[in-house]
Design a protein that fits this description.
This protein is an alpha/beta fold. It contains 4 helices and 7 strands, in the order βββαβαβαββα. The longest helix is centred in the N-terminal third of the chain and has 16 residues. The chain is globular, with a radius of gyration of 14 Å.
Length: 142
């Protein structure tokens, strides 16, 4: 099915739009600081983003309805370089997920959601690589 729109700002006020990322594979990870499995998978998401940055993979971490101060306190204990987008009213999570955290949506270069992972996953393990690798493949020229 078609992707719902996604237009959010990050912790620094930068606007992010899924439409602007067309042509790049994207992982949208929906999470909250109070979610233990979310916290547990964050380091592997960070490693995944670093490993596949040259292939154009964009990993966006979408925080569910928490105040900026709460997120910044969390980042003091687990520093991340992933863009953290603010879903202040929960509308993005409602549109994209079953509201089980964490949920990660894998989106291809055409902006089409290809799969979702509900629950924690080690993003450096074989299971995750099997999901991510097809997104990284470059389209063939005609």
């Amino acid at each position: 099915k078609a992707a719902p729109p996604l237009n959010l700002t990050d912790l620094d006020g930068k606007a992010w739009s899924l439409a602007a990322l067309k042509g790049q594979p994207v992982l949208l990870n929906f999470w909250a600081t109070w979610c233990g499995p979310c916290r547990a998978e964050m380091p592997s998401l960070e490693l995944l983003a670093t490993r596949h940055a040259r292939a154009g993979l964009v990993v966006l971490s979408v925080n569910y309805k928490e105040p900026v101060a709460t997120i910044r306190r969390f980042l003091e204990t687990l520093p991340l370089s992933l863009p953290i987008l603010l879903d202040a009213d929960g509308a993005a999570a409602s549109a994209w997920t079953p509201r089980v955290f964490p949920t990660t949506v894998l989106i291809d270069r055409h902006g089409v959601p290809r799969s979702s992972v509900v629950g924690e996953l080690d993003w450096m393990a074989g299971t995750a690589q099997a999901l991510v690798e097809p997104l990284l493949a470059r389209p063939r020229s005609a």
